[in-house]
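Weekly puzzle thread! Below is a chain. First person to post its structure in C-alpha cell form gets bragging rights.
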Amino acid sequence: MTRALILAAGEGTRLRPLTNKKPKCLVPLFGVSLLQRQIGCLQRQGIHDIHIATGYCAEQIQSLGYPTTKNDRFDKTNMVATLFTAIDFIDQPGDLVIGYGDIVYNDSNLVKLLSCQDEIALMVDAKWHDLWSLRLENPLDDAETLVLNDAGYVTELGKKPENYERIQGQYTGLIKIRHDKLKDMIEFYERLDRLCHYDDKSFDNMYMTSFLQALIDEGWLAKAVLVDNGWLEVDSIEDLNRYEHARAAGTLSRFYDWSIY
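Winning reply:
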C-alpha cells in the first residue's frame, strides 16, 4: 500500500494577487487547481490515502474533504516543519509519496517513482535545462546542484552551483520513502540539533533539500529516478504566463500533459 502526503502550507507570495485570499496549491493551471491535478494523478495510480499538510488559508483546503494537519507556524517555518506536522500520518503502514503542493506531473513520471524500491526515491529531471530555459532568462540563476554517483544515487543536492558541472539533473519536489524507513526518518528528524543551522537556515526554516542532504550524509541511499521533463512547477505569475504562452504555441506538451487531470 502506498500513501501520499502533499505539502501545501505556503503563502505563494510570488503568485499574488492570485494568492491574496487563496493558498498556493489552489491556484488554477489551465482551469484546474494544482492540488486537484496532483491528486488526480495519484488517484489514477491507485493512491487514495491522501493527506494534506496545510497552513495559509487552511480552511479552504480542509473544505475539500481530505484529511489534513495544519502547520500553525507556516509563516515562520519552512517545508520540513510542515512535513512533520503530519507525523502521525507519516508513521503509518505503507510506502509514502511526498509531493510539494506547487508541482504537477505526468502519470508516467509517478509510475517510474513508484517502481523504485530504494529507501529514498527522488524524481530528478535529467532534461531540466529545457524547463528552466522556458521559465528563466538564465537557467543557472535558479538551478541547484545535484550530483550522482556511478550507481545513480544522489550524493549532493540543493547547493548553489557556480557552473553546470555539478548539475546532473534537478530535484523536482517529488519523493518516495520506503515503508520500513519511515520510523527511522522520524527518529532522525527528532535527533537533529534545533540550535544548528542547515545550509545557513535555522532548524525551523530548513529547506527540504537540506534535510535530504542530512539523511544522505548519515548514510541513507537516495536513488535518482530520472525523468525527461513531464512536470511543471508553478512558483510565480511569470511561470503561469509562460506556460500559457507555450500551450498556445503547442509546445507545452513536451513538458506536461495538461489535458489530463
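Puzzle host: Confirmed. Bonus trivia for everyone else. The longest strand covers residues 170-177.
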